[in-house]
Design a protein that fits this description.
- The complex is a heterodimer of chains A (170) and B (157).
- Chain A is an alpha/beta fold.
- Chain A has a five-stranded mixed sheet.
- In chain A, 37% of the residues lie in helices and 17% in strands.
- Chain A has one domain: Glutaredoxin (3-Layer(aba) Sandwich), CATH 3.40.30.10.
- The longest helix of chain A is centred in the last third of the chain and has 18 residues.
- Chain B is mostly helical and 157 residues long.
- Among the domains of chain B are: 72 residues, Helicase, Ruva Protein, domain 3 (Orthogonal Bundle); 29 residues, no CATH class.
- Helices cover 62% and strands 0% of the residues of chain B.
- In chain B, helix 3 crosses helix 4.
- Chain B is elongated and about 95 Å long.
- Classes of the chains: A alpha/beta (170), B mainly alpha (157).
- At the A-B interface, helix 4 of A face helix 4 and helix 5 of B.
Chain lengths: 170, 157
Amino acid sequence: MGVLAIITGFFAIGLTRDPHALPTMMIDRPMPDFKLEPLGDEIPLLTFSDVKGEVTLVNVFGSWCVACAAEHSELMKIGNSGAVTLYGVDWRDTAFEGRQWLEQYGNPYSKVGLDADSRLAINLGVTGAPESFLIDTEGRIRYKHIGPITPEVWQETFLPLIQEIEGGKQ
Amino acid sequence: MSRLFFLFCLIAIQTLSPANAQEKTESDFPPAIEAEARTVGKSLRCVVCQNQSIEDSSAPLAADMRQLVRERLAAGDTPEEVRAFMTDRYGNFVLMKPPFQPDTFILWGAPFAFVLIAALCWRLYLRPGERILDTPDPLSDEEAARLRARLQEPGDI
């Protein structure tokens, strides 16, 4: 009986945890330096100097990423709301397909860069798309969200955090 | 004939296997770097398909990590520095073999603890040897009388 209880306990914890949600190492660390490629002439290129001076949300996406399509309408709302400066990192993509994606679904990002060979993604400890990094005025990563940003996630997690960062001005 | 067919199948499987497909992707590096990169790659977990090393995985991110490992080794990093680079970004999770440190003491100690528990159970409950020596108490007079009466009852099995 005791053994059964222990095994049940193990499974109760073990089976309800998501093994894909890895602990994040990047919290409170400065945004790593990066150099991305442009998606096109008419799409402003995201550079390292952009992620400083204001609260920004860096969204890692890709045209191949199914879950990214699911969060895109929310990103459009966020981009239009002006609550935060939204940047995009088109990860493991081609400039052509990235451009097509933004033309098809709309471009919520102020600036976008292409990370074709995962240089920035690996530096950020990205394991899959979409992932979103909230970065404070000092250029420090304050929060990482794995998976699509749903309206609930935006309302209950991001908005309070943004207000806290802007209010604190640390 | 059937042997030839078997050989053909074997070669076909070999050439189609993902392991072979991957080997073609990176080889712009000197053999020494390549060999070192493979050893390092075997010790790094693919963060997409988590039970494979980045050397074994065909995930695109693993391919980029393999490339990065080679570049860093070529730039003069030691294997330890490359591993440190990855754990700095992905945590200890990225190591196939978790390090022995306070928060993994339970992990590494558990097998020994279980062996110890098993030995204890064996000693306490099974008590080998003693079982043979343990002779039951002799029957009391009353028990012996009941047994005798029972044995003399006719027809009963």
